[in-house]
Sequence to fold (654 residues):
Amino acid sequence: MIELKNVSKIYGKKDSRFAALENINLQLPESKTIAVVGKSGSGKSTLLHLLGGLDRPSNGEIFIYGQNLVKLKSREIDLYRSKVLGFVFQSFFVEANQTCYQNVSLPLEINHVLPRKRRQMIEKALSQVDLSDKIKSKAGTLSGGQKQRLAIARAIVNQPKVILADEPTGNLDSSTGDRVIDLLFTLHDQIGSTLIIVTHDIDIANKCDIQVFIKDGHIEKVSK
Amino acid sequence: MSWRDIIKRSARSLRQAKVRTLLTAAALAVGGFTLSATLAAANGAKAYGNKLVDTNFDPSSLIVAKSKDLISANGVATKPQLYNSSFVSNGVKGGLVQELNQKDLNRLATFPGVLNVFEPYTSSLLYVSRQGSLKYTGSIEAYDPYITHQFVAGTIKGQVPVGDVVLPEDYLSLLKFKNPKTAIGQSVNVQIRQLLGQQKTETYKIIAILSSPTTLISGNINTTLLVNAVQAKSIYDFINQGTINYDRYLIATVRVKDGTNPNKLLITQRAIEKAGYGAESAKDAQATITQIVNVLQIIIIVFGLITLVASFFGVVNTQYISVLERTREIGLMKALGMRSSSVRWLFIVEASWIGGLGAVIGSLLAVVIGTLLNPWISRQINFSNSKLLIFEPSQIIALIIFLIIVATIAGLLPARKASRLNPIDALRTE
Fold:
């Protein structure tokens, strides 16, 4: 269960006060696919940052699998991000100079996975995104769609409970984007993790079990 | 992230910026080169100094002159002295100085712990020759049985017999001897001229050939024939008869019983000094040389350290650029849950790698160039068989560690900047 109670994120004070999120209350079931939909500036990225432990709310509490993120110390937040979450970003953030193997290895290194166990996990993740043949290629030589698939392999290699995808198709053409989305859904079915996709694309949102519509820092509606 | 992964990742980052890494390391290498060459040169100079003292001074004896001033200035008066009719010219530089006479030599023998007093009775010869050879300059003095001499041919047990002579190696070919062995038993003539005009020739039998010493404090050993002390004294007396130099000796060697024990040597030295003489031990001579070397070394090390300061800022600059270039990577690593301390270490270790690389390049270059140039340098500065540059592995390792520490400290600030980046902001950077 992912639960947000009276969550607000407010920037600035008095005249320059700006509420990116205001009094958000939300309950999301585990192991579902969830779309967070909204225009740019609606607060959906802020919500993702809060869920990802990259930022802390001004008010309220966030429970993820029973843990209150707000009360975690920075060390525990780091552990939460490395053990519970997998991130997929709009601009991929793969290291162009490193091989696919090295890119996928990063979360394992952060998680102190023993070197001898890594290879098998990396090979599995790369085969799940259909990049087995690129294991030794530099990430910079990959196409956009391949880069995002590599990023997905990096996100799933740790078997995370929650995958956070921030506009994963934003930098891709529509057919490549569709493939990436299909891949995310397939992997979701395989791993059984909760998949949260932030998007402004209603077609993608409609493929998810739950759609959370955000506008001007408020939840407009939640469809199931 | 484990240390192993941090070290591997930081090395990988450096490999991806090869030119920048090498240029930064090159700056450190200059410092490393200077410092290791300096240390090696100082080692060589000290070793040379020690060798010099070892071959020229007997550790268990003292060099004694009539007054303390004369010892510190190699027998030359350092300031005007009250004239005394006993003063004679030292024959070196202007001014008259007090010298020892036979009475002094006898008195020195009575000081506590004194084993014997040796006076070389050094005299200049008019020339040295042999039948059928040209005439060559030279000097003559008493053979000191307490000093270990290196002979290329012949042996001496105890004193040189009267009538025999030890010939320096350099005279062999000049006097037309085919090799050292054939010279033994042959005779040489020495021509002596009295200061008041009279000349005489003396003929000696060669008993041994003295090898050219590797190191010299004064260049005369190669041209000094050694004879029995009695003979040396009679030549000295013959030459100086009727002059103020008669029975006047600049220095004498006072050998101390068990003098290798520094305390016993010091007791005798103090007693002699208290009586108004100047006395110097091998250790004193060594200390003077070492002190000169140390001062020179400090000067060069300061220059080496200045280049290190420059390369320190080079490393700081490079690492700042590295942090800026990799802001997004840092953001990603932190977003994926990497601890700030790991991020900091990643950049610190990167700086350490640069330091290690620079240090190894610098000291390796110094060792290679130094080893190749050593014979040439030694020839140029008349070091004969000694090496000017002596590389001590322990010093080089210490230097490498030192440079790694310097680079590591240089990496601290940029690494701190990296560790403090906010992942959201870092990921937004284009």
